[in-house]
Amino acid sequence: MMGFKPRFWPTVIALTMMAITTGLGTWQVHRLAWKTDLLAKIAQRMNGDAVPVPTDIPAPPDWAFRRVHVAGHYDETKAFWLYGRTYDGKAGIHLLVPLVRAGGDAVLVDRGFVPFEHGSVLAAFRPAGSDAEIDAKVDGVARLPEPGGLFVPANQPDKNIWYSVDVPAMSKVAERQLAPVYIAAKSDGGTGWPAATGGTEGTGIRNEHLNYAIFWYSMTLVLAVIYVMSSRVRPKPSNMP
Asked: What is the pTM of this model?
């Protein structure tokens, strides 16, 4: 019958690794609870009644993913192109345009996706030598500007190449102060470009924490089995005649 004889260093290493994987699994469980609550709040806000965007927004995070409406006129001479976007299998940009309200303040509106092959549509949003102002009423979802990450290319304001929404930098290019949140316009059911996607913005947040937790807890179990199997020894044969 096989015996069990643990050795010092393998035991230390195995227990350390199991403590780490168990800790990671528990952390993912906590993240799961946090993400589930976040998605529930987002769904509640997105499905709520639309409210007007105030002139002053002292706590922008409180407005994230809220249904809002705003009216004014688009300053299409200051359109921004947000690169690295895809939609329906096409690569392109999201078109962001300042919406100037009656009081003179402005909020950035994400009017939606435009594929690269429709370059003529994009060109129309930065007409040279004109005062392109179009009255509009926008129903959408308030979004917080997303910071650039380690794998996100740097914005190039001088070339109108943007990979993340940077309100201070965009305010300088637009030559007017923009609100600290921007509005992802909801689709009005029409066809053509830009294709507004504000109604589905919340669905892009992944919640894979349950899978991660199962993985790390499974790793703990695998390590425990390996440790037990490696610590088994055969009994020494008896020297009795």
From this structure: 0.70
> Quick check: 83 and 141 in contact, CB under 8 A?
no
**pLDDT tens digit sequence for 151-164:** 788 899 988 889 99
Fill in the amino acid letter for 73: H
DSSP state of 163: S
Q: How far is CA 25 from CA 9, 41, 213, 225, in A?
A: 24, 24, 4, 18
The domain locations on the chain are 3-42+208-233, 49-202
- Report which secondary-structure segment, H or E, holds 14: helix 8-46
Cα 81 to chain centroid distance, Å, stands at: 18
**C-alpha to C-alpha distance for 174 and 172, rounded to whole angstroms:** 5
CA angle at residue 109 from 147 to 83, to 5 degrees? 50
- Distance CA(124)–CA(40), nearest Å, equals 39
CA distance 115 to 209: 33
